[in-house]
């Protein structure tokens, strides 16, 4: 039978307030935007049952989430629409209001006995939680549900690379990688008269936000929500997982899970994903091990980086050896040297890079193998390493559905040397790892990738050449 209890390492009381005689337990949803396999939600239900009270879930929809645009908001609201319906089925009222997340939590927390929150690792997410903890009139409890092994349990400091954090994570996997049951709700909150935005009309909700609308949604390709995530996952497991280890670095194929954007918005649980992968007993074990390495070790290394590195989104986050070698080569000739506009419009002399940029810009996704090449070429083509870092980050955050999170920031930093080592010295890069077009030709069907991207972009945008 699945375990319905939550490991104590996931739970942290954030203030010194006591539980109050309020009308409900409030779960302030921010990072874990789902109604299943959500430790924070289940903890809130368990505490509410103990108090013989209902649970209310709230979400603050801010107008200026850093780096976001219409593409990101549409995907997120599609997911929250799905989550609201799932919560209703469990007898839980979902309240969404315009406003900063911490302010909405404090507003609804005035009438709560207890506030439960989930956990994101970015700077402003931590600031929001600090504000709620300091100003809520009741106890505030944080519950981790976005990693399999809690960050502090795995490591007490920033790890140097995957090879250093891997044994630390694997040491705890047997205890945390276990099935997790939902808790029956004993007291419905659906009768509570709490004003909320109407998510049945997402376009109307979006229309009242001053969003950057220059980056359109990609709902016909990637629709948000737990339901859609599980459908895509099931297709991957049945059709592609048996060849995942061999094909994951073959960008001309579609033999990947496409879970990164759903993980980004917390629409699917990494624990649920890992358990589904482990249950596939009819495929070569290498496929399971390879996916678990990416999902848990590599992804949780990124969480470790964001948590223990205050400047995770700045050039200063790079290791000293990388900054030194890039500085030593900052005056090396860059020929060609492209502007941000030229890069954004895929106007380079490299057809492989252009295809990768087109995939990102028009689909909100880029095959992970091409993400590495894409970032490396920006270093080569940009006037200074600092400008290259900012350019890569700006494009990454603007177009990727899964941009602007710990995994994404770490991915950009990796291009510049984070979690890597020095290699053979060469112009511009110094000893930072280099990737060449010849490597793409040797290791994959790169022309097949270009063809795939062109067909997909044309299907999404028939008017494009």
UniProtKB/TrEMBL annotation:
Chain ranges of the Photolyase/cryptochrome alpha/beta domain: 23-151
Requisite cofactors: FAD
GO biological process, one term: photoreactive repair
Presence of the UniProt keyword Coiled coil in the record: no
Pfam families with a match to the protein in the record: DNA_photolyase (PF00875), FAD_binding_7 (PF03441)
EC number: 4.1.99.3
GO molecular function terms attached to this record: deoxyribodipyrimidine photo-lyase activity; DNA binding
InterPro entries listed in its UniProt record: Crypto/Photolyase_FAD-like_sf, Crypto/Photolyase_N_sf, Cryptochr/Photolyase_FAD-bd, DNA_photolyase_N, Photolyase_Class-2, Rossmann-like_a/b/a_fold
Keywords (A to Z) from UniProt: DNA damage, DNA repair, DNA-binding, FAD, Flavoprotein, Lyase
Substrates-to-products reaction catalysed: cyclobutadipyrimidine (in DNA) = 2 pyrimidine residues (in DNA)
PANTHER family xrefs: DEOXYRIBODIPYRIMIDINE PHOTO-LYASE, DEOXYRIBODIPYRIMIDINE PHOTOLYASE
Protein family membership: Belongs to the DNA photolyase class-2 family.
Annotated protein name in UniProt: Deoxyribodipyrimidine photo-lyase
Lineage: Bacteria, Bacillati, Cyanobacteriota, Cyanophyceae, Acaryochloridales
